[in-house]
Amino acid sequence: MSVEQWAGVMRGDEAYAGASSFFKLRDAGIDVFGYDYIQPVHQGRAAEKVLFPTFLGEGKYAISNMFFDTTRAHVELCGARAIDCVVEEAKNPTIRSPFKGNMDIEKLERLINEYGPENIGLVVMTITNNSAGGQPVSMKNMREVSKICKKYNIPLDIDAARYAENAYFVKQREEECKNMSIKEIVKQMFSYGDMFTMSAKKDTIVNMGGLIGVKDGDSPLILKIKANCISYEGFYTYGGLSGRDMETLAIGIYEGINEAYLAYRIGQSEYIAGRLDEAGITYQSPVGGHGVFVDAAAMFPHIPYNEYPGQVLAIELYKEAGIRTCDIGSYMLGNDPDTKEQLKADFEFTRLAIPRRVYTQAHLDSVVDALITIKERAHEIKRGYRITWEPPILRHFQASLEPIVEASAGDVDTNKKLVSY
After folding, report:
1. Residue 169's domain is classified under what CATH number?
2. What's the total number of domains in the chain?
3. What is the pTM of this model?
4. Helical (H) or strand (E) element with 386
5. Whether residue 207 sits in one domain with residue 93
6. Does residue 240 lie within any of the structural domains?
7. Catalytic site residues?
8. Is the peptide bond between 128 and the residue preceding it cis, with omega within 30 degrees of 0?
């Protein structure tokens, strides 16, 4: 956090109801996002837990340009099913397209008609599209999705964890927005949604926090949100947050849309991408906002999806240089909620998410140097991993894995297997 945010920690009002820090946060949210109602919660997944049950249940579907892990889990916890609908060019990391986070508009309408508009409880637009590689959504695409949602009377939720980075890409890449400020782009983008959920730990750069926003201040949805918040999070004027957290969040809403900061922020990802280009290491290109998504399937083409190449590279990075990353692939995607069989992800990425206002160029060089070393010995890594234990949902947070060891012909076990675990 910035020095101003740390100063805000000392100014936080810890009153249970109606703290001055709450009103600062509410006013900042109304100003930047243009929504009438702002509800603090303790983090992004809490926002989903409070909001999603009001729209989703058994027999319902939610469609997104791409669900991230916890968002998909909250859809399934409601008894509904999550459907990804990202544009096709996003599925090829080597294609350089400016808005690979976009919703596939034709597929969206086809899915709505296939499942029936009455069964689509929610459409979710993730900006930027995290699972697709931190890729941005265009203003034009958001407008088209909004139009379809209105046509079929389906509520549109914005998963807004990286709203500021998305706005920066829109300003850089979309002609109609090149002369707009970041704040103006954010407000217009949000005008196409009906509500938003946000993990504030991302673009508002705080230690803890989340938000729910509702555009229409007279919506009956607000009473449902308040009721769920009181049940799960705390009174609706603090939503599970301390006053100091709300104070820093109110400051971060503005700091996150500072264009100079965003240029520096995106520039770090671009620097890594430039070095990876020189080294011949494939990643989701052009580079996304909050990090670089290395194509682990390209680095380990001999390792199948059900041995988790993204997880293989994450483990190798930790072994090589103590760098902690994560899989964004089949390991994270998990099992089909109905058949319980392993799902095959569209990507097998290892995500290099860059902490905000923390890393120097020397840190970034260490990461790339480690990747280059791993690439040079990638052929020596013959197999991936198998899961020895997993929980029923969000398995990648807790699951246990072990390496698959390839045995030689002379080491065949009593069951005549050439592979042991």
Report:
1. 3.40.640.10
2. 2
3. 0.93
4. strand 385-389
5. yes
6. yes
7. 16, 68-69, 159, 161, 202, 396
8. yes
